[in-house]
Every structure is written in C-alpha cells, then in structure tokens.
Design brief:
Length: about 120
Amino acid sequence: MDLAACIEEPVTIPAKGRRKIPTGIAIELPSPQFVGLVFPRSGISTKHGINLANSVGVIDSDYRGEIQCVLVNQEDTDYTIQPGERIAQLVLMPVVQADVQIVEELNPTDRGSSGFGSTGS
C-alpha cells in the first residue's frame, strides 16, 4: 500500500538534506511472524532523487507508533513534499523463524565464497 505525507503544509527537503515525514498511519501486526517493510516509491526516486535514509524501513510486530519516513534528497536542488503526496510503499511479509547454529565450517558449494558479480559469468 502507498504511504502518503500526512502534513498540513508543504515540507521542503533541501538539496543533499533529509527530513522526517509523518504518514499518519500506525499498524498492529498480528504476530512476530510478520514484518512491515517500507520501500521508497520508484517514481519519486527516479524522477527527483528522493529515497529513504535507511533504504528499507523495518516495522517490527511490537512497534505501535506512527510510521514515519526519513526522506533523503540526493539531488543538487531542493524538493518540496506536498500534503498527501505518496512518499513510500508498505509491504507486509511473513517472517521465517530460523534456528541459527554456530559452526566451524560451512558445507561446500560450486560457487564457494565468490561474490559480487561472480554468477552468470
């Protein structure tokens, strides 16, 4: 679902600056087996260089406050958020509860520890 700026007046994010923008929304997740993920909207990001400060926001199941988005202006010009402007997207996801074990070695694979562009070459 889209999250919109719940503000009375426009808020200007200065060039290379950041501002915390309220959404007016609070949620109660049904259990610790769910998480809310807040993503930047692709339109405002690609057209105006506005992104979330933490890339992806995580809403834990025990959080009860208002969802707020810290937006970062990556451009060299100011950008003004208008009241009701859609600024982010909220996705609810199930969480896998893993049984983590500390080990001395990992099982080998063909790929091994190669990373950062090592697949598909």
